[in-house]
Amino acid sequence: MIFEDNHNWDAFSLTHKDIFRDVEIKEINKMMSCKDENRSFFIKFKSG
C-alpha cells in the first residue's frame, strides 16, 4: 500500500500535521489497519 511504503504516511503526516483534521487522521489510520488480522472481516462466496 502506498501509504505504508517507505513509511510515506508517517513522514507526510508528521511534516504536514497542521493541515489535517482529526477525522482525516482517524479515517486514514482506520484504512491502514484494515489488513490487521485482529480486525473483524467476512468472506462472501457464491455456492452452486
Structure description:
The protein is 40% helix and 0% strand. It is an all-alpha fold and 48 residues long. It has a domain at 5-35. The longest helix is centred in the middle third of the chain and has 11 residues, at 22-32. It is elongated and about 50 Å long.
Comma- or semicolon-separated keywords:
mainly alpha, 2 helices, 40% helix, 48 residues
Kindly summarize this structure in a few lines.
By secondary structure, the protein is mostly helical. 40% of the residues lie in helices and 0% in strands.
SSE layout and pairing:
Blueprint: H1 8-15, H2 22-32
Shape: elongated
Provide mean pLDDT, rounded. 82
Percentage of residues in strands: under 5%
The number of helical segments is 2
Distance between the termini: 34 Å
Biggest pleated sheet? none
Percent of residues in helices comes to 25-40%
Structural class: mainly alpha
- In terms of per-residue confidence, which ranges show pLDDT below 50 for 5 or more consecutive residues? none
Radius of gyration from the alpha-carbon trace, in angstroms: 15 Å
Output the helix-strand order: HH
- Give the tally of β-strands: 0
